[in-house]
Amino acid sequence: MTVPTDTDGTAALPVASRGENFRLTVGYFLPNYLRGIFRSRPRLARLVARLDPGRRGLRLMRVMRRRHGRGPVVVRGTSGPTLLVLDAEDARQVLAGPVEVYAVDTWEKVSGFAAVQPEALIASHGRQRAARRAFNDAVLDAGRPVHRLAGHFLRIAGEEARALLGPRAEAGLSAGQVRDRVERMGRRCFLGEAAADDEEFSRLLGELLAEANWLGARRWRAGRTRRTRRKMMQRQARYLCDADPRSLTGLFRTAPRGPETAPEGQVAHWFMALGSVHATVVQTLALLASHPQHHERAAAEVAAADRGHGARTAAGFEAMPYLQACVQDAARLWPPVPSLLRRTTAETRWRTAVAPGGTNVLVPAAFHMRDGERIDYAHRFAPEKWLDGTAERDWAVSPFGRGEARCSGTELVLQLATGFVAEFLRGGELAVAGVRLHPRRPLPYSFDTSRLRIGYRPFRTPPEGP
């Protein structure tokens, strides 16, 4: 493996040993691949969770940082030599850097999205990316704390969550049951009420995402994949042609677009983000169920917001900052995207060393957000760190990305997840089984939903607000 050196020849980036590369592949890269990059492989995910790769991988990275120092370490990635970023300041350099230099359209993303949406923003660069980013930002209201359709979306979130809170909830809800309602919420919010019961659309998309996990390796299935995508796009077109004005597709006509925008090609990625909503919802519910003091404070906040602003409204959402912080910290503890991949398009400097353009860069977000050598709240449920700005100021704490490559739908994901969780806190108590979470013990590195059960029982007397 060639190692980039400084232009003056004064320093070289450290290179991982064969043993480190092997352990990193077996303990970090391979488990993440087996779990499913674009869509979870349930059986393999269950097996991988038993091996606890998060603990092994993060421990190895700490050892490598002690051995090689703060700078990035050259490792063998899936598509060639890759800079593994082990220092928080270097992570900030990548995430705060311009996407024209730290590009997001890596080989893995382009290969995977070719099966789902080749025109997706995350697989774009240059003028195409700029055009598609402007469109996504406009429709998703990127950077705005509350989406213009938040009131309607929060009512939908409440309705879908409430549909789960019948007698079966007392026996315990599986992660799959929650996922079905989150997907229905997404169809209603993104495509409109006409798509509410279109489970076939979600099935087709799921099939494409499962194929995307193979990163284009199963070329003999290309014909079948094209047919599946064509069927999905035909179903999607029904809702785009007669767009519901209270859905994201209803906002298309006012969003900026050009010949390279491909509006219809952006929708599938929004549904992919529902995976983040689902994961964050079940993680937040499990944490609140196992942390009584946090649950009590969050439930009281929801009750007060409902009395002061009306249930399931945009103003009510803004009056629930603590619950929002709970959702954000659940995503920090078990991030929906554990690694952030980039490729450099120009020479980049790393203290006294220089890497040439065309170098792959990997920021292990899960490592930085659970780095107990750097942050004192690494392994505990700490929503207060979002309220006081500690987590927000730390660029290495990035459950939804940072900088120019930050997900356009970050605020919308937070709103939908918060609205969904809030419904469980309105007049009921939570219980959790199948995961080991305790407020006085370090939280596990891995979160296995295969055995998870979220229990819910209505209060006899609703709790008082503050």
Unreliable sequence segments:
1-5
Task: Give the N-terminus to C-terminus distance in angstroms.
Answer: 61 Å
User: Structural class of the secondary elements?
Assistant: alpha+beta
Largest sheet data? 5 strands, mixed
Percent strand? 5-15%
Order of helices and strands: HHHEEHEHHHHHHHHHHHEEEEHHHHEE
Shape: globular
Helix residue percentage? 40-55%
Please provide the count of β strands.
9
Mean residue pLDDT: 90
Strand order across the largest sheet: 1-2-7-4-3
Number of helices: 19
Q: Radius of gyration, rounded?
A: 22 Å
Describe this structure as you would to a colleague:
The chain is of the alpha+beta class. The protein contains 19 helices and nine strands. Strands 1-2-7-4-3 form a five-stranded mixed beta sheet, with helices on both faces. Strand 5 and strand 6 form a beta hairpin. Helix 1 (18-35) runs antiparallel to helix 3 and helix 9 packs across helix 12 (267-290). The longest helix is centred in the middle third of the chain and has 24 residues, at 267-290. It is globular. The termini are far apart.
In short:
With 466 residues, this protein is α+β, with helices and mostly antiparallel strands.
Descriptive keywords:
globular, two-stranded antiparallel sheet, single chain, 466 residues, alpha+beta, 5-stranded mixed sheet, disordered N terminus
SSE topology:
Layout: H1 18-35, H2 42-51, H3 53-68, E1 73-77, E2 80-84, H4 88-96, E3 102-103, H5 107-113, H6 126-140, H7 150-162, H8 167-171, H9 175-191, H10 199-212, H11 222-241, H12 267-290, H13 292-309, H14 314-318, H15 321-333, E4 340-344, E5 348-350, E6 353-355, E7 360-363, H16 365-369, H17 384-387, H18 390-393, H19 410-424, E8 428-433, E9 453-458
Parallel strand pairs: 2-7
Antiparallel strand pairs: 1-2, 3-4, 4-7, 5-6, 8-9
